[in-house]
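Structure ticket #2291
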Amino acid sequence: MVEARTGSQESESPRGNSPRSDAPSRSPALGDARSVAVIGAKGVLGTHLVGLLEDSPRVGRVVAIDTEAPASRGPKTQHYAADLTSERLEHRLVEILDGEEVSTVVHLGFETSPSHLPDESHQLESVGTMHVVAACRRTRVRKLVMPSSTYLYGASAKNPCYLEESHPLCAPTSEPFFRDKMQAERDALRFGLPGRGTITTILRMAPIVGPNSDNFMTRYLAQSLIPTVLGFDPLLQFLHEADAAAALRRAVEVDVPGVFNVAGPGVIPLSKVARLVGKHRLPMTRPISHLVIGGLWLAHQSPIPPTFLDFVQYACVGDTDVTRRMLGFVPMFSSREAILDFASAQSLRDVQLLSETPA
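Resolution: structure written out below.
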């Protein structure tokens, strides 16, 4: 997902989904050696993905679109600079996608954490996705792949143990971080409506962790004291950053439209997560938690706003059976292994053997 959003253009200038099947397939219309554009390629997820696509025999060319080229750029990859918040983004994307004859777009232009500047986030995510979809429609793009979040289901005492993809999205729309992602999903799914010869694949990912990840969850778990709600110990699931990129590669290589939950196998109680990362919990009643976290958020001292308290009180766990069956993807790291890998890197940062901020 993108982390920096402004920049100048490079000198080079180029050109509801259909029903699911029971097994992954490759559409003849998209071909084997497809040209794939990765929008928002310089972040952790984009860098991982570009490296994987460089090694994929089913991808003939990678078009990296962001303010800077990803560190994993290789001989297959051509970088084009673009401002993902620009009002002229659609025009710039049409120029690039058309010139490179792109057939598949992976859209990673999303915030990884809630922002104190919701208008800028809205321009990046909601308006930006409208520009991306419009550019895809105006060119020869036949497939759109996009990450999303299992947190869009919302955390509630009424949630079933595992949330299937058909479960309504109940995260609070008063929170821009959720509202903009929901709108982006709706716009992306309209691109892949049946009868248009196009495909949309959306991967609703569990919180991403790993040695390089920097998002609201990793910041929450990196605190000396982890605030929790007194009397509650929800089950959590996680996705390793390498598995997140691998799931996107899988979605590029096989043509299966729809929405898919992606998470590492297994769930972990929040209390155990705190022990695994070597941190202490700070239990507070819900009203006090709301006041304390709300005040810290306003002071830019909390990684989460008070609207996220539901997620440290109730479970929000995605069912990944459809992803295994239809997309044919199984993560290499369990939720526990993903947390342990994050914890190992974080412990080195805590003693300043690694940089304080992930690369």
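Closing remark: The chain is about 35% helix and 15% strand.
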